[in-house]
Amino acid sequence: MFLISLPHSHQSELRAVRERLDRAGCRYQSIALADRVQVVAFPSSGHEADLAAELQRVRGVERVVRLRSPYCLSAREATEARTRVTVSAGLEIGGNEFVVMAGPCAIESYGQTRQIAGVVKGAGARVLRGGAFKPRTSPFAFQGLGHDGLEVLRGVREETGLPIISELMDQSEAAAVDEAVDIIQIGMRNALNYALLRDVGRLRSRRPVLLKCGIGTTLDEFLCAADYILCEGNPNVILCLRGTIGISRESRSSLNVADIPALRKRTHLPIIVDPSHVAGAWDLVPAIAASAVVAGADGLLVEVHHDPSGALCDAGQCLRPELFHAMMHRIRLLAQVMGRTMASAPEPMSRGEAHPFSDFCLEAPPAAPAKEGYSRVGLQAREAAL
Asked: Model pTM?
């Protein structure tokens, strides 16, 4: 498989490339991006080297890359530099800044969302997360506020200035979600929903898309799924690892930390980690977040709630505000060690609450008794009841 890149303006050169591929009997597909055209070609075996050399001599062709992976546009060799996805003015994911997105699992009300937005912004988070449409295992669990939730997110963004990320579940809601958010999230359950991925890639806004890895999905399958978005012309894809089913009974999912450097070796796309869904328990989140920083991730997606015991979704894995502040302090120190920058915290960290890993933190606040009603067992029981 070849990937041929040339400037978007060179239409005559593009015709020359296509004519040469036609003469060679190659199947190919052209992808128009903002600044260039990429042609994916499949030459017949035995003549790849000669064809590659001939294509490289066509005027206007910048690069001809031979690929042996099943994915193409997301491959590390597809671009000369790592992709930086611009979310808003002054915010990009995939650069030197380690970016944290945080907020409630589900949008429950304007007041709840506004309060949590203030918390995460005060701790240095750069993006507010919150689900308006919620895919749930049980049809009787809280399914989100839908379009009303999108309106809440709009209002909170206007008030706080935080860009927002929210999940798209269905093709019929693509236009509404695209209009309301700054980053479209494709969740684990839709990671291999190729029709939805193509539709998201076709959106004229070229909105950044955060693609979560599906349960049991290999890295090759994950990158092929990213190619479904990329091949429709949207280059703004962010990969998100959230763990897979494993044998551990201590966490909700199992995250292979080696997947982070393995992905960085294979792809130019930014990589973030969702430690909340990996852990399934709030007290495991900080350590998993720290491992993601050290392993080379570009950011985090974290669940935070001002009152986890009353959360309508994923109560057991939400961090309380003071614990989120403490975790952000810890990973900020780690990011500096790893040569990354992080947004500063406008609000000082509370020193009066227990940190879930007080004996493991770089600089932990003094221990204090846990708040009544915030045991993992109690939260899991409440979540099951919901």
From this structure: 0.88
